[in-house]
Fold this sequence. Notes:
By secondary structure, this protein is an all-alpha fold. The protein has 17 helices and two strands. A two-stranded parallel sheet has the order 1-2. Helix 8 (184-195) packs across helix 16 and helix 15 (296-307) crosses helix 16. It is elongated and about 130 Å long. The model is unreliable at 9-26, 37-45, 63-67, 101-130 and 137-152 (pLDDT under 50).
Amino acid sequence: MSGPPRIRSTDIATETEARSVLGPAGNKVPRKPAPKSVKKSAKPVQQTDEGKDKEKDKELLSPQKKPMPVPQSLTLTASILKQQERKLGNLSMSLSCLSDGGASSSSAGSSSSGRTGAGRRDGGVGVGVRRKQIGSIEESRLVAESGEGGCLQSKKRCGWVTPNSGPCYAAFHDEEWGVPVHDDKKLFELLSLSGALAELTWPTLLSKRQMFREIFLDFDPTVVSKLNEKKTSAPGSPACSLLSELKIRGIIENARQICKVIDEFGSFDKYIWSFVNHKSIVGQFRYPRQVPVKSPKSEVISKDLVRRRFRSVGPTVVYSFMQVAGMTNDHLISCFRYEECITGVESRGKDDEANDETRKLEETTDLK
């Protein structure tokens, strides 16, 4: 046998502890943590009152127990919104009292408080809605206080009358244009002015209307037909300052032809209104662009007038004459004169029927 057997060491714990362990970190032996001192745990520490106060201060100042601070901007906006809501609530109450004319304060207060509560729940939405309501109330109050009921802008008129139109032009639309005319002198005047539209406009003609009546002797066909064309249309005459020589001669010639029509039909009114069966034609137009410049009816009348040797009576001139003489109602449906002209025609038709009945009765009584 080769040598004595080795004696195994009894201190197994020390050998295992001394042996190095190969781990992921290599052959480095991990260091053991230093043992805690037993002296500190053994000796009880007595805390004084000053130590207790310091611990309380540390607990209060510790970051875990600090309350979250409220931003100053939020507090300011909340206070501003509350002030605005109070002011708007008071203003809405006063305006509602003014608009309703004596509404009870209790109902106004309850409505304003309900609106403010909704504004708070919705995050300020009620404030904007209330501002819109207040704005509409203020606008209605201003319109009511301004008293614009009778001004030019308040009435809805046809498109050719604008807010910049003169009072004479607006009165022509409101009182004359579209109203049925049955007087021979007035019909002759309107026919002459319609023919003069080739050289002048309606506002200019209306401003010089009195001069026309003086020169043409109130448009009496019998008197105008006897005027001397050369003297009336001579250079430097008052008529030449208004119209050209061709138009002046045309008015005098038309007066002569009207006298012939009166001899044939009894009146120029019966002759000209017979083309529309003695009833106004209602246009029923919604927009100014729908109003025509001429119509088939005006072309028929124009042809008959030309056949009778009238001058300056084209289809466009005749249609303008029909509009101003009330033979056609071309007021827009939205115009306030549309219904008035229709009702005026109906009332006049009833009066004519009543007059015809009285005439028949008188004739029957005379025969008896």
